Amino acid sequence: PPRILTLEEPVLHMDHCIAFAVHGNPAPTLHWLHNGQVLRETEIIRMEFYQQGEVSEGCLLFNKPTHYNNGNYTIVATNQLGSANQTIKGHFLEKPFPAVSGLFSFQMQYTPEFFCVDCKAFSFQVSIAVGLAAFACVLLVVLFIMINKYGRRSKFGMKG
């Protein structure tokens, strides 16, 4: 069955790397969990490893990770004879807006959902604001033209 030989905390080389080494015959399949959820490879997170005999060595690579990538990373190695897993804590950055301590302490959660709570209502409000601004501009242009056209006549026939 597979055995996890090493699992190291993230280290910054070119990218952040969680180095690992797994032994198993037959060669185990490897996958990762982040805080208990299956970790999918993306542009930011990818796994690179090479097989040398019965040992697979490699890195889980992070390209410019943020505080969203903090958490527990578990490597799971599985073959026909069994499976093995091991967890390590990965900490990359602090949250950018920590809680304010004191009488009025609060903590805001900055997630993608935070920025768009009710997108349709926000879109409607923006369109109303843009429409009112356009109406005000047209009104000012018409007022300016009328003042220039009719405002040049002297009142009471006085010439100045």
Automatic annotation (TrEMBL):
<dbReference type="GO" id="GO:0004714">
    <property type="term" value="F:transmembrane receptor protein tyrosine kinase activity"/>
</dbReference>
<dbReference type="InterPro" id="IPR036179">
    <property type="entry name" value="Ig-like_dom_sf"/>
</dbReference>
<keyword id="KW-1133">Transmembrane helix</keyword>
<feature type="domain" description="Immunoglobulin I-set">
    <location>
        <begin position="21"/>
        <end position="88"/>
    </location>
</feature>
<protein>
    <submittedName>
        <fullName>NTRK3 factor</fullName>
    </submittedName>
</protein>
<dbReference type="GO" id="GO:0005886">
    <property type="term" value="C:plasma membrane"/>
</dbReference>
<dbReference type="GO" id="GO:0007169">
    <property type="term" value="P:cell surface receptor protein tyrosine kinase signaling pathway"/>
</dbReference>
<keyword id="KW-0472">Membrane</keyword>
<dbReference type="InterPro" id="IPR013098">
    <property type="entry name" value="Ig_I-set"/>
</dbReference>
<keyword id="KW-0812">Transmembrane</keyword>
<dbReference type="InterPro" id="IPR013783">
    <property type="entry name" value="Ig-like_fold"/>
</dbReference>
<dbReference type="Pfam" id="PF07679">
    <property type="entry name" value="I-set"/>
</dbReference>
<feature type="transmembrane region" description="Helical">
    <location>
        <begin position="122"/>
        <end position="147"/>
    </location>
</feature>
<dbReference type="GO" id="GO:0005030">
    <property type="term" value="F:neurotrophin receptor activity"/>
</dbReference>
<dbReference type="InterPro" id="IPR020446">
    <property type="entry name" value="NTRK3"/>
</dbReference>
